[in-house]
Design a protein that fits this description.
The strands form two sheets. A seven-stranded mixed sheet has the order 2-3-11-10-5-8-7. A four-stranded antiparallel sheet has the order 1-4-9-6, with no helix packed on it. The N and C termini lie far apart (77 Å). Helices cover 33% and strands 20% of the residues. By secondary structure, the chain is α+β, with helices and mostly antiparallel strands.
């Protein structure tokens, strides 16, 4: 059945000899290709006198076919839909965090908006965590429109940034040109297009020794403001943790705006949010003035209004900026929660004035 004659069958290697041959071959340049599961095929190949070069070509082809079949299975196993897009950690407690706080020049994150602002073609470093560590998992990354009326529309680069004449397109495959998001630190990532929706599927390995996370770095190759692309529609990054069958084990989201000036746009949107909350609070005050509550009790203060002056020395510009950013975000959050925007605004403006 396997093409070996009765005389050849008598010459098949015993288990000990087969093991010794495998051990010897581990030291050769193509050893990773010779660890076949089919012992008969291995022995038959050696008996027929096929050269090492031919054997290497055969096994390389077999490996390529297997890789293509695996990729096709992964591509066809799932597709991006809006049927259920809630965030959840799942049984593996799927989480992500930023690798650093950003400088405000390349990218900046707003705590009160829970939104990322980043320049085009700048690297965003993220760290993904799942417990316990295990093999056979995949991370799917996609950028999608936030608003429900655009949820089914595919997000892709504008015609200008997708053109062959664009400098970035000189070094990427055609299948990647439509993708707004690119993974820059994992060459094994698969760029998928299904039903016009685009995503990146990255095989996840277990954490490196001494590390508790998997680093992922992304670049964004189009802007939210591009007319023929996202066209100023709000977008979000969607990260899903999946197994090899495409079953979603966890999902996380991150609002994102790809722009020319992250720091400026962040401050603008935060100010708009605070102003909206201030306006709503003033409407509430006018309504309560018409119908005052005469309870005889003094209304408690919404927050501590005492101003504390802090004078500290900080080593390093990045550390200095991080302290200023934290102080600004804390007061901005309090302003939103309490509606006392006018109280916090002068001190927030003072922080911005002292930010290089």
């Amino acid at each position: 059945m396997n093409g070996i004659t009765s005389s050849q069958e008598s010459m098949l290697f015993d288990e000990e000899t087969f093991s010794e041959i495998q051990t010897d071959l581990r030291d050769t340049a193509y050893s990773n290709l010779l660890m076949l599961e089919d012992k008969d095929l291995f022995e038959m190949t050696l008996k027929r006198g096929i050269s090492e070069e031919k054997l290497g070509e055969f096994l390389n082809g077999r490996k390529r076919i297997k890789k293509e079949e695996t990729e096709q299975m992964l591509i066809s196993s799932t597709e991006i839909t809006q049927q259920c897009d809630d965030t959840f950690a799942g049984n593996l407690n799927f989480q992500y965090s930023f690798a650093d706080n950003g400088t405000g020049q390349d990218w900046a994150y707003s705590q009160i908006l829970d939104k990322l602002f980043i320049k085009m073609e700048k690297v965003l470093p993220l760290r993904f965590i799942w417990e316990p560590p295990m093999e056979g998992l995949f991370l799917r990354t996609a950028i999608m429109f936030k608003l429900e009326q655009f949820r089914n529309d595919p997000v892709r680069r504008c015609y200008n940034h997708m053109a062959d004449s664009h400098s970035f397109n000189q070094n990427i495959d055609d299948q990647k040109k439509k993708h707004v998001v690119h993974c820059v630190n994992h060459s094994a990532s698969i760029y998928i297009e299904k039903n016009e929706h685009l995503s990146i599927l990255t095989p996840l390995r277990t954490h490196e020794p001494g590390s508790s996370y998997m680093p992922m770095c992304y670049k964004f190759l189009c802007k939210n403001s591009c007319p023929s692309g996202m066209n100023r529609r709000p977008t979000e990054l969607v990260f899903t943790l999946e197994n090899d069958k495409g079953v979603i084990l966890g999902r996380r989201k991150l609002l994102i705006r790809i722009c020319s000036c992250p720091k400026r746009d962040k401050q603008k949107e935060e100010t708009e949010l605070l102003s909206d909350n201030l306006g709503n609070n003033q409407v509430t005050k006018r309504k309560s003035t018409k119908h005052p509550l005469h309870s005889g009790k003094k209304m408690p203060s919404l927050c501590d209004q005492h101003v504390y002056k802090v004078q500290i020395n900080i080593v390093g510009k990045e550390n200095y900026l991080a302290v200023l950013k934290y102080a600004y975000d804390i007061m901005a959050g309090q302003a939103v929660k309490t509606g006392q925007y006018e109280l916090f605004k002068p001190y927030m403006d003072d922080i911005l004035h002292n930010t290089p």
